[in-house]
Amino acid sequence: MNRFKTEQIRKRYEARKGLSPEDIEIFDKQDSELNKICELARKIHIERFPEEYDFMLDSISDSNVKSMGKNPMNREYVERIKAKRTALGVSQLSQSGLPTSSDTMDFCIEEAKMMISTAE
To answer: What's the superkingdom here (predicted)?
Structure first.
């Protein structure tokens, strides 16, 4: 087991320490719902905002250009992304093409909550 999983198990144990079996059941249900929402939100985020993951496919030269504060993407793509983000009401990417806030993930979390609540 790696350190991350060990730490997760420890935190889970600490959060439930001293609770009654009924309280633990409620806590587990809330935790399960939150995990479901976060998992769906991540999927929505990847689909809706793939531009925030572009840096993962950067070449060395693209990475060097971004480190100088410039965006290596072509102008048409940048304009299309700006228009999409403006229409959705989320913040624009930085000059280098990287996200500057987490408002897109917040947007996706709200959408995931709505989708899950209407499905139930």
So the answer is: Bacteria
Total domains in the fold of the chain: 1
Domain extent, residue 78, equals: 3-119
Alpha helices in the chain (DSSP H): 3-16, 21-48, 60-67, 75-88, 103-119
**What is the pLDDT averaged over residues 111-119?**
90
What tens digit of pLDDT does each residue of 52-79 get?
Answer: 998 888 888 888 888 888 888 888 999 9
pLDDT band with cut points at 50, 70 and 90 for residue 111: very high
pTM of the model: 0.79
Rounded-to-integer distance, Cα 56 and Cα 31, Å:
30
Spatial contact of 116 and 36, defined as CB atoms under 8 Å apart: yes
As a whole number of angstroms, the distance between CA 38 and CA 95 comes to 29
